[in-house]
Amino acid sequence: MDRIARRGAIWAPLRHSDGSLNYPRLMAVPSPPETGYLGQAEISGFLASRLTRQRVKERLIEFSMFLCALSSVAITLGIVGTLLLESWHFFANVSLLDFLTDTQWTVLFENPRYGIMPLVAGTVVTSGVALLVALPLGTVIAIYLSEYANARVREILKPILELLSAVPTVVFGYFAFLFVTPILQSFLPNLPGFNMLSAGIVIGIMIIPYVSSLSEDAMKAVPVHIREGSYAMGATRLQTAVRVLIPSAFSGIASAYVLGFSRAVGETMVVAIAAGQQPNLTLNPMEGAATITAYIVQVSLGDLPHGTIAYQSIFAAGLTLMVMTLVFNIAGYLLRKRFREIY
Amino acid sequence: MGDIEIRVARRKRMDGIFAILGLVSTFVGMLTLAALMVDLAMDGSARLTQTFFTSFPSRFPDQAGILSAWVGTTLVMLVTAATAVPLGVAAGVYLEEYAPSNWITALIEINIANLAGVPSIVYGLMALGLFVYQFRLGQSILSAGLTLALLILPIVIVATRESVRAVPGTMREAAYALGATKWQTVKDHVLPYSTGGILTGVIIALSRAIGETAPLITIGALTFIAFLPGPPLKAEFPFVSFEWLMSPFTVMPIQMFNWTSRPQHAFHLNAAAAGLVLMVMTLIMNGIAIYLRYRFRKRIRW
Is residue B6 domain-shared with residue B141, that is, in the same domain? Predict the structure, then answer.
């Protein structure tokens, strides 16, 4: 005890003349102490109470961190709740059958018709074009980076490639509208200024990193001995990749494809700028058409009163978008489960 | 035997062709990036004068500038960072260090994985229904910042978890052996060691938020703002003001979108200039993140 006091240590509790306990820091040891140091029993009592306080503090911190983690669940509930609630109001006025079967989407017109089909068609065509670009390129890049490129080339190429997904989408929209479309028009003279082809191509290039990175990770995760087995049989790198790695890494590659699809379907600014905002029930990528997302943007840009049917319609459109991605995610999940390889 | 040799030669040739194909495919992506930058620079660099940064938008393309846009972007990012970083880091640390393995934890983890795949415009719809109308925050900087915070929350959580997981268990055991409590261990040992990784993730997340357009249009960001939000500091008591949180706003990408969708070519040049500024901001942030990741990976030896 003496020794501790002499050195002004942190661990010496003091009792003041008014009977209160103090817990002096290194700098704050009063000397001489007013009524002397505490006895052993008092010290352990003091430490015990301090320990209890510490425990309460620990629990409080843990609980508040738990609440932070729980916020992700709250966000999901918020998203689903908002979409369902506003869509509920929407479907009180519009029959679900009309919504799914009508071929016209003219919510902002005099005689509104509420058929989601034209918007779904626009979304399907633009994401279809995007996937036609992104899946082959992404897969080839993944095989190249994981099996062909040496470590140094990979270290340089990968970050540059990933910058593609860091570029703001509105910049890609500008690029599609004012750079890609004029180029396409030079050999497709009938292509209108707003078309789904250029929007789709640009979205496709934009989502390449999503597809290639995840696929590459999946191929990398295949154990080396499986690769070596294939090489030992005399297979080339290409044969190994196509016949051994892709089947083995299938579940990871499928997740990459599903993520790419989700990004393509949810992409907004590129289509809003380059594909036009006119709902158009067509599967021809050479035409312009509004997608679900472009419609939401178009309506939001106007000053839309809260509670009108047009206001509710963007939530119904958003719900449709969510259902589309959900269906694909579930399909991807089932596929992965079916083809999962465990080593 | 001749037959086999021909086959082997053919397969080797295919292999070589594929190597070239792979390189070409990679270059498609990089060429696009380069074309994008060159296109923006060629159209926009002439407009990048000092007045472009200090002028409000205007009906006249050659007088229009991005003052309200970059101020708006800065303020929205402040709100986003102030919300997403504490929330995301706390959630990430909880899931790595504290969470028991029960159904609630499983539910939280599934949620985070799924939120990462939700289209950004859907966050905008939620914010429109919830923040703007339900909580009556209006079409304000606060609503926008919160929206983007929720959008990047999964990125921050995942980055935090990864870097916390990379801290070896021996560090924690050493702290426990000296009598540290769990929180003391986390606060004094685990978090300092994982700061680099968390910072990298936060910067990447913010660089994504800075370019987000759709959710902010959805909550009703204006495209034409010719004034600045109230100043955060005042001369009289209490010296700070949070009036700016409730102010209407515009941000860089929305300003660019607005100029892109006008028919006059002169506005397209403004759009290119704004896009160039936006790209440079994003690239700098990503560059810092890549550098930090590289430095921390090199410096730490367990």
Answer: no
